[in-house]
Amino acid sequence: MLNIKVYYEDTDVGGVVYYANYLKFCERARSELFFKRGLSPHQDDEFFVVKHVEADYIKSAVFGDDLVVTCKLAEKKAASVVMYQEVLRDGEVLFKGSFKLAYLKNFKPTKIPKEMFEVLDDEK
Question: What is the pLDDT of residues 100-122, one digit of tens each?
């Protein structure tokens, strides 16, 4: 889980969060799963990449909002995972998305190490 304050830079001229920034908020929350354990989602020549996204924009966040971004491991396979994420304001879902992440080593799909699954499964 990640708390985010909406800054002016996150919004369009009307003070509404620009649609692409919800994807950035979700990326930050996934990275935070690693950072809070003193780890990095990018280690040497191994890392996750987004392969597929399904996004549902429900309501708009605006300048000054306090948001919470959640992460939940929804599916795991040998070389990929699906993360389900939501962006909430005061408990109300504003955005939800499903992110398929492939794990690469030297830019080729490879088996995800067990410890990586443990990091991603942190917020059941």
Answer: 999 999 999 999 998 888 888 86
Write out the catalytic residue numbers. 12
Distance CA(36)–CA(47), nearest Å, equals 17
Asked if residue 96 lies in contact with residue 23, where contact means CB atoms within 8 angstroms, the answer is no
**Angstrom distances, CA of residue 48 to CA of 30, 63, 64, 105:** 10, 31, 31, 9
Pairing type for strands 80-89 and 42-43 reads: unpaired
Residues 6+ apart with CB under 8 A from 51: 80, 100, 101, 102
